[in-house]
Amino acid sequence: MDVGFVGLGLMGLPMARNLLKAGHRLRVYNRSRSRAEALEKDGAIAVDTPAEASAGDAVFTMLANDQAAEEVVFGGEGILKGLGQGRAHISMSTITVDLSERLAQAHHEKGQAYVAAPVFGRPEAAAAAKLFIVLAGEKGAIEKLQPLFEAMGQRTFVLGQNPAEANLVKLSGNFLIAAMIECLGETVALVRKHGADPRRFLEIMTETLFAAPVYRTYGALIADQNYEPAGFKLELGLKDVRSVLAAAETKSVPMPVASVVRDHFLSAIARGGANLDWSALAKVAAEDAGL
Amino acid sequence: MDVGFVGLGLMGLPMARNLLKAGHRLRVYNRSRSRAEALEKDGAIAVDTPAEASAGDAVFTMLANDQAAEEVVFGGEGILKGLGQGRAHISMSTITVDLSERLAQAHHEKGQAYVAAPVFGRPEAAAAAKLFIVLAGEKGAIEKLQPLFEAMGQRTFVLGQNPAEANLVKLSGNFLIAAMIECLGETVALVRKHGADPRRFLEIMTETLFAAPVYRTYGALIADQNYEPAGFKLELGLKDVRSVLAAAETKSVPMPVASVVRDHFLSAIARGGANLDWSALAKVAAEDAGL
Amino acid sequence: MDVGFVGLGLMGLPMARNLLKAGHRLRVYNRSRSRAEALEKDGAIAVDTPAEASAGDAVFTMLANDQAAEEVVFGGEGILKGLGQGRAHISMSTITVDLSERLAQAHHEKGQAYVAAPVFGRPEAAAAAKLFIVLAGEKGAIEKLQPLFEAMGQRTFVLGQNPAEANLVKLSGNFLIAAMIECLGETVALVRKHGADPRRFLEIMTETLFAAPVYRTYGALIADQNYEPAGFKLELGLKDVRSVLAAAETKSVPMPVASVVRDHFLSAIARGGANLDWSALAKVAAEDAGL
Amino acid sequence: MDVGFVGLGLMGLPMARNLLKAGHRLRVYNRSRSRAEALEKDGAIAVDTPAEASAGDAVFTMLANDQAAEEVVFGGEGILKGLGQGRAHISMSTITVDLSERLAQAHHEKGQAYVAAPVFGRPEAAAAAKLFIVLAGEKGAIEKLQPLFEAMGQRTFVLGQNPAEANLVKLSGNFLIAAMIECLGETVALVRKHGADPRRFLEIMTETLFAAPVYRTYGALIADQNYEPAGFKLELGLKDVRSVLAAAETKSVPMPVASVVRDHFLSAIARGGANLDWSALAKVAAEDAGL
Fold it and tell me: Does B170 qualify as catalytic in the annotation?
C-alpha cells in the first residue's frame, strides 16, 4: 500500500521501518527532517509537511503528546488538509480521550476515516514488531489496514466504532502499570526497612502470583534502583495519569489510587526526577520511608 | 514422619490430607472435633488438645488469625507445652509479623524450633498440592521437613533464619493482590462509565501486559460482578491489609495505597459486604462512581 | 468615579448595588440583559457589551468561571477592546492562576492596568458590604480604586504587583474550606456511628478550638444534613479544587488532601449531588461509612 | 475535698497545682517520685503507689498513653485496688476509646465510679486553669466533682453517661487539629513554590475565614518553620491519629484524610522528626514539594 508516517521518534522510527520491510510505499515526515531522511536508505520518501505525508491511502501518526498531535493534524499544512476524502488517519499516539474525540469529529466532517490505534510495548518491542495494537474506528478502514498492523505488531485487538475507546483502554493500561510500580515501591520500602532482601521478595512475587513480564521488568528496575536511562520518562507517566484522571473526571469517576500515583509523580519531579524512568516512583516510596 | 496438624479449615483440611497421602503419621486437632474425626478414615489420629498434636517430630498450624494462633500455642494445653525440646512448630497461617516474632521468641526459650511457612494459593490449590510455600527459620529444621512441604506445595522458597520475614513476604503479597483488585475496580468503573465493555478491556489487559493468573482470576470476578460465594472473605482481606500497615508502622513506612485499600475495605464492610469475596473492593469503586 | 461592572450574578448584583449606593456612576453589563436593567432603578446604566461597560475609569468583573471571564475580556466586543489605555480592569471572580496570568499579559500589552481582587464571603456578606477583598496588581491602580473596594468590602488585603498571587490566595482559601468540610464530615460520621450526638460534638469544637465563623456555619449545615438550597454549589467547589490542583501541578506540588477532596466531590456528583451545597461532601463521608 | 492525682507531667503538674490552690487536700503519685515531692511545698502529700493516691473521695489520672494508664489502674498497687467503693476515678488522659471502655467496665464491676474527662489545651492553658474539659460518666459523680473541674479549666462540657464518648470527642478534636496542620502545610508549600509570602497568606487566612486561635498558633509555627522545641510531640500526634483510626475501624468508618495524616506522620518520623512539634507535618508537605 501507499501510506504516510508522521512522527519518527523512539517508537515511530522502528514502526515505520517495519512497514518498509513489509514492502509498503512510505512517505515519512518528522519535525526535525534529519530523522526522516535517515529512513530514505530503507526506501522511504522524506516529505516536508504532514499534508504531503497524507497523500496516499492512509497516514499513521506516532507523536509524543496531544500538542504535537494537534499540530500535525490541524496545522496549516496538516493532515486534515492533505488527506483525501475516504482515506484514513490512523493515530497510534497515546493521546487523551478528549483529543481523540475531536479528531474523530474533524475527520468525519471532511469525509475522512479516523482510526485510533494506540500500542502497548517499549521501543524494543516496536523494533521486533511485537507491539500489541488496540484498534477502534470504522470497521472497513481497520480491515483494509490489517496487513499494516501485522507488520508492526504481534497482535491486534479490535474494539468497535468509537475511536476514543481505544485511547481509554491504552490510558487505563498505563495507569495499571504506574499503579503496579507504586505498589511494588511501597512493598519494597517495607521489605527493605525490615532488613529483608527486596530482590528475593520480588523474585518470589514474580515466580508465583505475578508471573507477568511487566512485573518482572519493573521489579528488576526497582530492586536494582536502576532508574536511568529512562525507558519511559517519569514526566510522560505523569502526563498519562493526568489524562486518565481527566477522562475519569468527565464521567465523575473518582480514582483514588490514580490520585496517589499523580501526587507521587509530582514529588518525584519536584525532587528532580522528571527524566528518570517512571519506575522511579519507587524512589519516592523509599524516600518517604526515610531510605 | 510422625507429625501433628492443628487447624482443619478450608485450607488446613486438604493440606493435612496431602500429608496423609504422602504416608506420614498424623495427629490432628481442630477446635470443633468433628473435622478432626472426619480425617480418621484417611488414617489420621484425632486428638483432644494442641499439646497432644505436638507429641511427634513436628507440628503444623494453619489457623484463621492471630487470636486462634495465639490460643493453640500459648493456651493451657497448647503447643508450647506439648512440643518436645528440639522439635519444630511450623506455622503456615497468615499471621502478623509481630506475632511471628513473639512465637519465635517463645519457642526459642523452650529450646524448640520455629519455622514460619505461610502459603500462597486458594483451597483448590491446597487440595491439588499446588501451594507456594515461603519458608524462614532454622535451616536444619527446614531441610528435615522438606518432604512434608513437597507433599503440600508445588514449590518452596527458603528465605533465611528470621521466621517473621516469611510472614512479611506473605502479607506483602496479599497487599499486592488487594491493591491490584482496587486498581482493576477503578479502571473498570472508568471503562463502564465511558460506555465501553469491561470484559473486553480486562481481556486485553490479561492477554498483553498482565498475563498472570491472578489478574485473570480477579478480572473475571470483577467483570462479572461475581462476589459470592467468597473464595477469600473481604473481612479477611481487611485483616491482612491491617497487618501490613502494622508491620509498616513499626518501621515508619507510609504505604498510601494500602491506606486507600483499607479505607475501601471499611466502606465495603459498612455497606454490608464483610462476607463477600475481597474482589468486592471493585463494588466500592463502582458505587463511588455512581454505578 | 465612573466605572463599569460586568457580571450581575448572586455575588455581582449586590456588589454593584453597593457601588451605586456609594455614589459612583456605574455602567452595568450582564449576559442576560434583564439583570442589568433591574439595576437601572438604582441609577445604573445598562449597556450592551463588555466593551461599553469599559468606557469609564475602570471596569469590574465578577463571573462564574474562567470561560465566562475569557469571553468578556477577549471576545469581539470585549473589555480588552473597550478599555482605554491607562484604565484598569479589576477581576474579582474566582478564576485560575493561569487565566489571571494571561489576563495580566494581555492588558499589559495594551497599556491597560489589571488588578486581581478576588473576595471571600457569601452573597449575604456581599449585600452587607462585608466582603474580604484580596488585592494584587499595580500599586497606583489599587490606591486610586481604594474607595470602591471600601464600598464593597469590610477589609482589603494588598499583596503585591503580581495579580495571580491574589487568585492563588483565594483558591487556597477555598481549598482550606473544602478540606475543613471533608474533615468535619469524617469526624461526624465517626461520632454518629459511635452513637454520639454530632450537634453536641460540633458545638464543643466550635466553642473551643475552632471558634471561627466558618466552622460554625458549616458545622451547622453538616449536623443538620442541610444541603439544600446551595449557598455555594458543590460543582463550583470541584471547579475550585481543580484550579488549586492545577496551580499546584505547574509547580510540582503534591496536595494529597486536595486529591481526597476532589475524589469525594466527584463521588458526590456521580451520586447526583452537583447542585447541593458543597458541605454535602459530608454526605459522601456518611455514605462511605454506611450511614 | 480529699483527692488524689496520678501523673505529674507537663500537663498534670500544673493541673494538680491548681487543685491545691483551690484548697483541696491532694495525695500525689508520679512514677519518678521527685516530681511528686516537688509538690509537697505546695501542700501535697507525696505517696508511693497509685493505690495510696486513691484513698480519698476521688482520684485523677493524667498520663501519656494507654500503657501508662493501664499500669496505674490495673497494676498490683493500682487504682482499682486502692479506690473505695462508691469513689470515683477521673481519667483526664488522652487514651483510646477501647481502653476507656475497659476502664469503665472494670470500675463498674468494683462498684466504683469512672468519669472520662479529657482536656483541650497546652501546658500554658493548664497552668492558667484555662483548659476545656469534656466530661462523660455518672451524672452524680460529675456534679459532685464540678468544683474541682472549675479549679482546672475555664469551661466544662458534659456529654452523657458513656465515658468513652468523651474520649472519642477528644481524639476527634486532635484529628481535626492534625488535619488542619496538614492542610496548612500543603497550601504553604503551594504558596512558597509560587514565590508568594506564606506569612502574608496565613495572616489573611487567620484574619478572615479562620480567625480561631488554633489556626493562628499553628499558622505561625508553620510560617516560621519553627518546629522545636515541641509543644506537642509529633510521635504523640501519630498516637492520637492511630487511636482515631482504631475507633473508626471498630465501626467501619473510613477516614481518608486521617489516613493521609497518618502516612505523613510516619514519613516525618522516618526522616528523624519524632521529637519535633506535630506542626512539622508541614515539613513533610514542603519536602514532598521539593522545598
Answer: yes
